[in-house]
Amino acid sequence: MKLSVKTDYAARAVLSLASLPREGPARKVEELAETVGTSANYLVQILIELKGAGLVDSVRGKHGGYRLAKAPEEITLGMVWRASEGSILDVPAIVDDDCPAGLREAWKSASASLTESADQVTFAQILEASGRDREMYYI
Amino acid sequence: MKLSVKTDYAARAVLSLASLPREGPARKVEELAETVGTSANYLVQILIELKGAGLVDSVRGKHGGYRLAKAPEEITLGMVWRASEGSILDVPAIVDDDCPAGLREAWKSASASLTESADQVTFAQILEASGRDREMYYI
DNA sequence: TGGCACATGAAACTTTCGGTCAAAACCGAT
DNA sequence: ATCGGTTTTGACCGAAAGTTTCATGTGCCA
After folding, report:
1. Alpha-carbon distance B5 to B27, whole Å?
2. Inter-chain contact A113–B109, Cβ cutoff 8 Å?
């Protein structure tokens, strides 16, 4: 199973937005796309979904752009994942009555384990871990 | 992210094979396909991959078919998952140097959590849990 | 009016989910 | 030993769906 680049981009975009103050000017899609490493056209679609999930806010007009809708402490990797893909791990067998009960339980437990892990890490933590690492280059 | 039906079928097929003695006659693909709930043509492709991973053995000829290559205690859900999809959860960002270190760590931890969970449950356990459940219908 | 988000649509590409077919291996009977 | 039927094997093919990207036009705000 492979993670889509879409979710990858979404996480990088949120992280990038988390790295600057929410009170400052909104960040333009063009800029964001450059740091994320994709095209602005594609990133817009992702940002719209993130906005629909309430993770991000947009500002129109001349000095428009995007900024975080919540504090980085309140945004988890799981939230971004769900916003991008609908669900973190959807296993149809879990709700299939023809699937043996034991197998259903096994899938359910695997899925729950991934979800818990993804919802446990916030972008404040990710940001700090990235920042600390970057400092090491300057020592 | 959605689990492919291929992996779902693979797990059901292995579970079905685990439910009968390995010393008995091999189970025909046609029968297996019926209990799994898919076409024999498609299931064959899955079984070939399971065989390549050493989870299943095949017998040719008139009384041919498939049987488990290992004891159910030695086959985990993770093994079947990897045999079917190559890897349980592939996150390209983990090996991307352009990805911030903190984000890489977050992905790595989520992926490890899922892998551990999938490798923890064996088909002996799944079989027992399903069997116990089935008995309840007869009480 | 100009810059920008927003919305939509379509092209290019990959993956999924199977179907089809011929050949190889095996068994049982002749 | 040979023949015929059964079954796996493995490759190729193809429609359908999803992914990723680009392009175009519209509406909003300073």
Report:
1. 21
2. no
Residue with tokens 């492979």: A2
- Bases of chain D within 7 A of a CB of the protein: 4-12, 19-24, 27-30
Per-residue pLDDT tens for B40-65?
Answer: 889 999 999 999 999 999 988 888 88
pLDDT in tens, A98-120: 899 999 999 999 999 999 999 99
Number of domains in chain B: 1
DSSP character string of A81-138: HHHHHSSS-B-GGGG-TTS-HHHHHHHHHHHHHHHHHHHH-BHHHHHHHHHHHHHHTT
Q: Please state the rounded mean pLDDT for residues B116-137.
A: 83
Quote the pTM value: 0.91
Quickly give B62 CA vs C29 C1' distance in Å: 13
What CATH number is given to the structural domain containing B17? 1.10.10.10
As a whole-number percent, the residues of chain B with pLDDT over 90 amount to: 68
Cα separation, B74 vs A11, whole angstroms: 37
Please tell me which residue of chain B has the smallest CA distance to A87: B1
- The C-alpha atoms of residue A57 and residue B55 are separated, in whole angstroms, by 50
Residue of B1, B87, B111 to mutate, interface with A, max A Cβ within 10 Å: B1
Do B90 and A3 make contact, defined as CB atoms within 8 angstroms?
Answer: yes
Contact B93 A8 (CB under 8 A): yes
**Closest CB from A93, A114, A133 relative to B114:** A114
For residue B26, the enclosing domain spans 5-138
Q: What is the model's pLDDT at position B72? A: 95
